[in-house]
Amino acid sequence: MLWVDTDFGFDDLWALLLLQQHGVSLAGVSLVAGNVPLAQAKANALGAIETYGLDLPLYEGADRPLLRTLETAEAILGPTGMQTRGRALPFVPANRPLPAAGSALANWLLSAKDTEPREILAIGPLTNIAQLIDDTPEAAAKITRLVWMGGSNGHGNHTAFAEYNAIADPDAANRVMQANLPLDVVDLTLCRTVNFAADDLPNCDPLTADLLGGYLDIAINRGRDSMAIYDPVAALAIISPEAFESQAMDMAIETQSGDYYGATTFTANPAAKGHLLTKAPLDAARTCLHALAKKDQ
Fold it and tell me: Cα separation of 282 and 58, whole Å?
């Protein structure tokens, strides 16, 4: 069983569709503020459940970073966190509050026998995971693998040096990196090696085609003809971990204000418990795109 922690933009949805296609069962999906405020992440998740029939046991997590003011990515991704070419997920009213993510995640981890894997895929800021470490350290110790799409072993995307999921809550990332968890990082540099262009677009249903086109437009509007694939690559690392190359690393993040705020650094250390994934499988883009294709193909 897998737990997914997400700020639920388009590539988060894409990652969940990939997991569904490969038969991965989800014990829970915790929402966190990041790309968009928590209320919009919740609306996106509910709309995705109605549209795609996803089985997502939803839980409501942190609505702000540990110590700082929330800075979303709406300036790039739009108010829903999903750039489009005109279509959008349906708005599904939330009839009741969602259960709290912290207690649900802790209970799931603590219920595990020593021989049972407890993997978490984090595809947003690490606020919920950091809060788990602080509030229920005995539960965090049960995590057998934490895969995080975040950080960069090179240039950033939100600033010159910082990747968005890292700079969105660097204090949370710092807490997780210091907790000596089995952390596998799928960073910006790796994701930028997995790309798709207009010629690669699969035959999708109209809404999915629109959302995928809007995602590609982020690159096109910046003068590039291809777009990197982020969260689905992290999901692929859950599905096919043996297909990736990795290196044991010590990890750190800059939490002080300045040009390097939110920047991550990775230092090779064979004894380190954490790993930086350094090479994705050659067919990673095709595998990710196939998850969005019409089911009758």
Answer: 33
